[in-house]
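Hi L., both proteins are below.
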Amino acid sequence: MEEQQDLLLDAEEQIYLERASAGLRFANFIIDVIVLRVIGYLLGLVMTMFFIELLTNIFDGMGYWEIFMISYLFGLIPNFVYYTIMEGATKGRTIGKFVTRTRAVMNNGQPISMQTAALRSLCRLIPFEPFSAFSGYPWHDSLTNTQVVEIKRY
């Protein structure tokens, strides 16, 4: 219970704009990828159980390339929903950011809105976007005027 209260206090704390390190950002990425894989696996399992006949009819007669592309596009939906809801509802945090005590904020330090969270999520869908992190300022930050900062208590 005490840990839950601590997480809720983070949402109300004053943010000091100290950019999160590349290591923290990478940890966020890895944790969120693991969470998304679990969600994707569970969604795939549920869809297969409940819609196996419909899926069989849809994919019947399709080539491997078409099946791959449809699967890829449907795989982007949980990614978009996860990042949008998590960052929008928690003022810039995902499960990875909760673990590493970081938060996405506007460049002026203000919390991000649901609209900004959705834009950040859309930017993450750009092909090769994760590689933009090697520049030190990923596209989902630069295109939305946001940054990820460490949460520090003073």
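That was the first. Here is the second:
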Amino acid sequence: MKIVKKSVIDGVSSVYVAETADKAGLVEFVEVAPEKSGEDYEKWVLILSTQIGCPASCLICDAGGSFVRNLEKKEILFQTEYMIEKSRIDTKRVKKFKIQFARMGEPALNDFVIDAMAEMKKKYNDFIPCISSIAPAGREKWFDKLADIRGEFNEFQMQFSIFSTDEKKRDEIIKYPKMNLEWVSSFGEKFYREGKRKIILNFPVNEEFPIDIEKITNIFNKEKFIAKFTPINPTEIVKENGRLAENYYETIELKIDEMTKALCIKGFDSIKSIGEMKENLVGSNCGQSVAKMKKKASDDSGLTR
């Protein structure tokens, strides 16, 4: 693959866009600035793409709507190796080295993801894999394989993008067939390891996406699951469709606080995850950098006609 664009905000993150060798399309991957701890590092996160585009076409994500193909194992590994070589960081000196399969694409639709994860284990023995998935329908065998290799890792972060507890609304938001909440609960019961990280249920918060606290606590085991609430990122598609109220970022934290408190009363753990706003400037939201490049190319083409 060939790097065709790089965006950096020092101390925040670096976003790389690469063109595949067969020129099938563009993929993006991200290095979150490492956290230093003396001469070593407390935490370092790399975020990889698993597909060119994404077939899920979620309403708030720039990666959807232009799926081309799955990335091969070597293309997934390239992203990790490029960022490690460029940074010159010895991963053995990183206390928490996380590799997230959470960029462009739905990892559960790509069989090469598990192969790449196994290869990374050989090179970076103590890395923490992070899978973020919508739980696409028909991929039960893939998830079974994931559960089988889970025991090879000391830590493993498993996250499901839920969006809403209303199944009909989930279908509107995530335009791809997916397993229901009961299946996610059943898989999490099997995947969880005692004393390790709980399975994350991710909910971007706005008025469009109903989130029923009672339903969360009734379906999911509070000993094995944790709810994560985040603001909606200002992706290009969100901006185009006017999905954010004018004062959204001024009020959303209060709404998230209400939900975390409601879950706390029921003894269900939750996370309030409000990221660094500078990440929006560097274009580190999923598919955003590629979307911007495509839009610019389209605009430039229009000007030359």
